[in-house]
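Budget justification note: compute hours in this period were largely spent on complex prediction jobs such as the one shown. Inputs:
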Amino acid sequence: MESNESSFDLIERYVENKLSAEEKEVFENQLKEDQALREEMSSFKTVIGGIKSSQRSALLNQIKEVDAEMPKAMKTVSLFDFSMARKESIYWIAASIVLTLCIGGYFFSNQARKSDELFAQYFSPDTLKIKRLSPEVSNQYQKGNYAAAVKALNQLHKSFDDTTNATNLFYKGNAYLALKDPEKAIECFQKVLDSPNGVYKKESEWYLALSYVKAKKFKKARPILKNIASNSSHPYQKDAEDVLLKM
Amino acid sequence: MFDYNSIIEIKNGNDKTLTNIYKTYRDEFIRWSARHYQCPEELAKDVYQVAIVIFYENIVNGKLTELKSSIKTYLFAIGKNKILEQNVEVKKQERMHENFVYEPIEHVQAEDREEVFTSVEKALSELGEPCKTLLELYYYKSYSIEQIANTLGYKGNDSAKTQKYKCLTRLKKMFAVQKFSSFN
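Corresponding output:
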């Protein structure tokens, strides 16, 4: 082996970590002293780097050729129009969405549990004034056939009598809550609160707040509950205080 | 369908196995990355192709020695890392596993990198055979001297080794020429 080749061989074995600890130390000292050796090492690494890089590209091109012969992947409706968004922002948006969903998902599941727990603990359908309801509705409601009760209520025409309307709405709201449909319940109770006469106002406040809790709209529930809690003549004052503490 | 044997086959130079793996999981990867990362099809394909190359390199350079999960899981993990690589914040937090990114080709300054590698690439293509294949087998596919001697039909290890040295020397000379010619 000529000296050039042996020098090369040493460099290569160093780079490949094939030198013993002693040999390595000797070589590293040599490197410090010998400029020519350093240059040779540098050019060696450059050339090897070039070989690796070009082979990597060649393999990638081979794979692309294989891909070109495959049938097209699928018809996708892409959420992001590629022509509009820059590559980087797509990934950043995607990654940030992923992160937000992860965080949001965790937050959400906590809130969901709280909402269900509070609702289960504090809701029971009102039965105080059901005698004012038409017998058919009252019958279904008492049996717990809330869907049938709602159906019957929906078939009633709006009465000239506000009290009757308010009664119907109030119990419809209750039935919806029993059916775990807080959105529709919210509509009903809000209408009762908006109506001109004063019946069921306090009760509807409470049930409206509960509906918001069930719907996980805690921000909307809170002010209503605070209002109730601060009202000593309110039938649900204590309950409202309790719920606020637990929220 | 593919297991550790496939990895051994790839390490022994069976390119067909690698292409079959590519074909098998491509569509699934595209769908998976669209669903989980809103990744558009073309980009998902690019990522997947790079992932296959990294997978291959990990096999031949010895980084992948045992498979704790399936090949598909490993491949998808590389792909996921590549997608998340784009987001610098996520990159910092997740501390990209070094086996899931391209092994850095060291030493060359970043600015010169492209130029330098292109020059070497040109020189390599002009080198002709058997040098081009020999160098490729040794430096990219990590063949041992013995394997090269067997594959290319040299009389023995020393013979193969000397030939390798000669090829590399020629390449260096040609590369130096390329480098200078690019300044003209």
